[in-house]
Write a structure and sequence with these properties.
This protein has about 90 residues and is an alpha+beta fold. It has two helices and two strands; from the N terminus they run H-E-H-E. Helices cover about 30% and strands about 10% of the residues. Helix 1 packs parallel to helix 2.
Length: about 90
């Protein structure tokens, strides 16, 4: 897959209760307009490593579902908080 064009890192909006604000995430994608060719999801904006695997997956699904035909790059790293985190 070739990644070409404008592919910004997208911020994952988090509500006060700690849940992903999917509506705001969809709005970010919609506001990107036609000049954006794709998105870096859970990437360099800081929150990605602190989201659970399910939250990272859901974030990617919401963004992908909001911009048909775009390219996507997803970061899958996570932080280890203790010895039991594997």
């Amino acid at each position: 897959m070739d990644l070409v064009g404008v592919i910004p890192a997208i911020i994952t909006p988090i509500r006060r209760n700690g849940k992903i604000d999917e509506g705001s995430l969809e709005k970010q994608v919609a506001l990107s307009g036609a000049r954006v060719h794709g998105f870096l999801v859970n990437g360099t904006t800081g929150e990605g490593p602190f989201l659970s695997e399910e939250e990272r997956k859901r974030t990617f699904e919401v963004v992908r579902g909001s911009k048909e035909g775009a390219s996507f790059c997803a970061r899958v790293a996570r932080c280890l908080h203790g010895a039991d985190d594997g």
